[in-house]
Amino acid sequence: MNTRYIKKIVSLVIVAALAVACGDSLEDTNINPNEASTAQPDYLLTNVIKSSVDTYWGVENNENSTLLFVQHFAKVQYTDEDRYRFTNTSFETAWKTYYSVGIQDLTEIIRVAEQSGNTNYKGVALILRSWLFANLTDLYGAVPYRQAAQIGSTLTPAYDGQDVVYPGILDDLKTAVDLLDPNGPAIAGDILYGNNITNWIKFGNALRLRYALRIVDQAEDKADEVIIDLQDEPIISSNAEHARLVYLSSPNQNPIAANFETRDDYRVSRSIVETLRTLNDPRLPVFAAPTAEVTNEVYVGLPNGLLPSDASAIGFSKTSKPGAYFLRPEAPGVVLTYAEVLFNQAEAVARGIVTGDAEALYEKAITASLQQFGITDATVIADYLAQPAVQYNATNFRESIGTQKWISLFGQGPEAFSEWRRLDYPQLTPAAAGVLNGKIPLRFIYPGSEQSLNGNSYRDAVNAQGTDALITRLWFDKE
Questions:
Q1: Which CATH architecture has domain 41-251+330-465?
Q2: Per-residue pLDDT tens over the stretch 250-273
Q3: Domain residue extents for the chain
Q4: Which residue from 10, 179, 269, 392 has the highest number of Cβ atoms inside 10 Å of its Cβ?
């Protein structure tokens, strides 16, 4: 054999060996000795809960949108959002945070839990992931669901319609609750329920009831099946079992409190102030602060959707900020309450899905809400319930439950927005200087980034669902 040829082969072998060795060396060099080589589910769980509740209660998802739509808040300056002036960059935060942090990390917790056999981690992660998917579809409509969080195989996931997403969520919640075992393997990192699996079971069932009612006007059989199945299941049964994140001092304070530390854009809406005043509702001084300048009414709400000049003319000092309860750094980030469970149970009875006393459940729901906000005097509660305008109207459960649920959800914009659309009460007057021809928004528009990063799936979703507009009615929101 030619000597020169042999030398060339030997040289190539040496180069190849060096390349492999260098590759191994580089891989070793690039290992961070301070970073865990496997995912830590407790750390992931803490981060998911904190980031998700922050987003749920945050400015873009809550104060600057849903709280304005349902007229809990109004804007006293920079009033574009209160007039429904949004762009396709206005609703990025919920989409990006829920998908890239929440759903991605929860999917990883599920993977690790399956490998380790820790069914409690898997159940908790499934519950939280279901809640995030529900938030997304509640706000936007069709969303990536079945192909979501599959970066390794699907970079441009297809969107699923609400007729697919909600039943899928309900099935996942049922699976999650069945997996959970208070006597099973321990979990850590749970800043929502302090690693209490019994409370997670109750929360999971409360979410099943919530989302069964969400689709009851469109998928009655599925909704009825879930609600009937829940009759003998444990569910949130006191204010102590709320699903809520208790915040601390800065920098871990409640998002509304954090925003008011540096800004003064928001006031309590006239719609809810006047409703509470008319009903002699003892929650008025909890929800609204006295005006900075002395006024005859003490609590003064601001009309929604004013032009900047008109809002300025009414003034900062003569309109009410949210009450001190909501501006405390440690104010809870509520996800689901006992009052909501009771209202939902009352509605299930009113619809004839299950038997019971709808009026008694309705009154228990109002009582739970009053107590949640610190009104505990039995005489005050009884006097409030005795008013004709508060008493349950069996001929129109939507009005009674819808109005009182709207009040009880004050500050919890995303859920109040969903229930207002579903129940159609209270009947709100659109923004004074709104730009939607006398209509109130019915959804978020998709983030503009989806048009460039996932354009084909985005267009397919819009073609199926309807125009990507604020006033496009979603599937669950049946007329």
A1: Alpha Horseshoe (1.25)
A2: 889 999 999 999 999 999 999 999
A3: 41-251+330-465
A4: 269
